[in-house]
Amino acid sequence: MAVPPSTYPRRLLPLFLGLFQAALLLFFALFVTYDKSSAQVEDTSLVANQVYSTFPFFQDIQVMLVVGLGLLLTFLPRYGFSSLTHNFLLLNFSMQWALVLQGLLHHFHRGQIHLDLHKLLISEFAAVTVLISVGAILGRASPCQLLVMATCEIPIYLASEWVIVTCLGVLDVGGTITIHIFSCYFGLGVSKALFRTTQQPPHPKETPTPSSDLMSLVGTLILWVFWPSFVAVLCQPGDAQHRAILNTLLAMSASAITTVVVSSLLERDGKLSPGHLQNGSLAGGVAIGVVADMAVPPVAALALGSLSAVLCVLGFRFLTPLLGRKLTLHDQCGIHNLHGLPGILGAAASVVAVLAAAGLAVAVGASLLAGLLTGAALRLPCLARPPERLCFDDSLYFKIQDQAGSAGPDSSAEEGALALKEQV
Length: 424
Known about the structure:
Layout: H1 12-31, E1 32-34, H2 41-72, H3 80-106, E2 108-109, E3 112-115, H4 117-133, H5 143-167, H6 176-195, H7 210-232, H8 239-266, H9 274-280, H10 283-288, H11 298-326, H12 335-348, H13 353-377, H14 411-423
Helix pairs in contact: 2-3, 2-4, 2-7, 3-4, 3-5, 4-5, 4-6, 5-6, 5-13, 6-12, 6-13, 7-8, 7-9, 8-11, 9-11, 11-12
Keywords: Membrane, Transmembrane, Transmembrane helix
Subcellular location: Membrane
Family: Belongs to the ammonium transporter (TC 2.A.49) family. Rh subfamily.
């Protein structure tokens, strides 16, 4: 295999991350501080209550994003190391980048940004959009391409959220519109621009195995357990937060049962599809977010969870292949089925229909346009997009011990991987 062109910068990934972290250290040293300790007992008690009421939710969300979502992406049998590591890397990178941008835009007073747990939580919500969007191109993009994608997506998300929540006044505590719909169509826009009109043929390394599907299903279970915390954390403590937790649990319980029903009915032998279970069981949590804290009856939460699961499973079975054939749209993880379709359903179910429709238009329009532009930028050769035969393979980025001494038909691919690693 020929060595990749010399135009690729050597060690691009550590250079990119090293410069970013150095710049962030300088920024924090100059502008970021904590709030001064209060001498008033009442103020101290108020701060303590805020921390104790928020931090358990924050921990749940950390488990969701680091462990649950990371494992959900391990359905690619030879890309598990990369899926987990890239998810973890992007979470930290995007959170820090969002902290900087949000601090400059909203919290910069008298030359300083005062950091607290709430601001960190909001930054993690911004990072979620990146973790969802990369699902569209998982396995076919280099780490540098993913970091550039995150760099572009965070500011677009912050602008979109400001328009939807602040300007339009849309109530979306669970991020159905601002997070799930935005990230879905941003990711699809990136995919469309990155791969253009070339239909990606099935890759031999992207077929799940029983063990990889099992690990991914474990990720689904973790996400399912902690999802109510994700929806309820930004609600007002009290009745609103209580309703959000109950509505989310009801919606996700209904989506789990409905997924089993629909998946079984779609298969001639009545067996269940692991891919349907991994995604459809979570669809209720996506759809309920926009109305979670509202005074909707319990039956509405159950109905929304069931309908979202039906849409998700049908999307995997029929819509994804159709979009691939007609629009040459590549969606590796099916983010359109889990985040896009249930998100649109949730927005349609919002009580404030006019405002929700306007917010939906902003989220879809801005994310698609920005995604297309970002995807075009990711085609730059210097970002070291992996060649087709090395996609979905951990050996491109990791030292895999059990493959070190193997030789055979794939030896040339391994040599190419080693050569490309030196460039990336």
